[in-house]
Amino acid sequence: MTYGNESNRKQVLAGAHLMVQRGTFHILLGPNGCGKSTLLRILGGLLQPDSGSFRIDRPCGFVFQNPDHQIVMPTVAADVAFGLGRYKLREAEVRAQVNCTLEMVNMQEQAQRPTHTLSGGQKQRVAIAGALAENPKVLLLDELTTFVDADDQQNVLEAVKSVVGGPEQVTALWVTHRLEELEYADSASYMDGGKIQFSGSAAAVADYMRSLGARV
Ligand SMILES: Nc1ncnc2c1ncn2[C@@H]1O[C@H](COP(=O)(O)OP(=O)(O)OP(=O)(O)O)[C@@H](O)[C@H]1O
């Protein structure tokens, strides 16, 4: 993947080979600027790569680092319902789907809350519920816990963990800088210089990170 034009080209991905098993929680780690978000955006169809290929289950739900870029409605329930507008569902069906997805992220008690009164982590869970409402096979989650406190971090991770797998075999690809989050993952990868440098179980990646001098 290359950004820029003829006079100012920047190659960001250089043969990033990533394989994630369906129905698992996979963490993607790597230093700032190594290309994690670019890879995620390509997988989510938000960016068109100039070469290479990939296969991914569809539909995919994408959740951004800053929930304020994703939450568009004044209340929690209205926001989760927003994306369902294009499916021509009956009102009762929308209500049922909203309730069900808010329960998945443990936000059912907050359905009528104004979204601007939520904490960062609660907003992330509303954004996740919005993505889940459309029954995605894959959740692409870009640094959701960067700006949240420890309690919210745990709540957001547990919300994602609880929807992974299951009868629908939902897969989560979670980009983060926070190494302690490896304990939630089934598997992980470390990316640097536009390439996947190492992939394996969460424990194997933790060992690899230690070998690079990280405290895990
Ligand atoms: N739209 C763009 N135009 C030009 N360069 C870009 C664009 N988006 C990203 N880049 C550059 O591509 C490189 C990879 O960015 P990317 O956001 O994919 O990295 P990242 O690993 O997710 O970084 P971080 O952990 O800091 O979010 C960076 O050098 C970034 O500045």
Automatic annotation (TrEMBL):
<dbReference type="InterPro" id="IPR003593">
    <property type="entry name" value="AAA+_ATPase"/>
</dbReference>
<dbReference type="GO" id="GO:0005524">
    <property type="term" value="F:ATP binding"/>
</dbReference>
<keyword id="KW-0547">Nucleotide-binding</keyword>
<protein>
    <recommendedName>
        <fullName>ABC transporter domain-containing protein</fullName>
    </recommendedName>
</protein>
<dbReference type="InterPro" id="IPR015856">
    <property type="entry name" value="ABC_transpr_CbiO/EcfA_su"/>
</dbReference>
<dbReference type="InterPro" id="IPR017871">
    <property type="entry name" value="ABC_transporter-like_CS"/>
</dbReference>
<dbReference type="InterPro" id="IPR050334">
    <property type="entry name" value="Molybdenum_import_ModC"/>
</dbReference>
<dbReference type="InterPro" id="IPR027417">
    <property type="entry name" value="P-loop_NTPase"/>
</dbReference>
<dbReference type="GO" id="GO:0055085">
    <property type="term" value="P:transmembrane transport"/>
</dbReference>
<feature type="domain" description="ABC transporter">
    <location>
        <begin position="1"/>
        <end position="216"/>
    </location>
</feature>
<dbReference type="GO" id="GO:0016887">
    <property type="term" value="F:ATP hydrolysis activity"/>
</dbReference>
<dbReference type="GO" id="GO:0009941">
    <property type="term" value="C:chloroplast envelope"/>
</dbReference>
<keyword id="KW-0067">ATP-binding</keyword>
<dbReference type="GO" id="GO:0016020">
    <property type="term" value="C:membrane"/>
</dbReference>
<dbReference type="InterPro" id="IPR003439">
    <property type="entry name" value="ABC_transporter-like_ATP-bd"/>
</dbReference>
<dbReference type="Pfam" id="PF00005">
    <property type="entry name" value="ABC_tran"/>
</dbReference>
<keyword id="KW-0813">Transport</keyword>
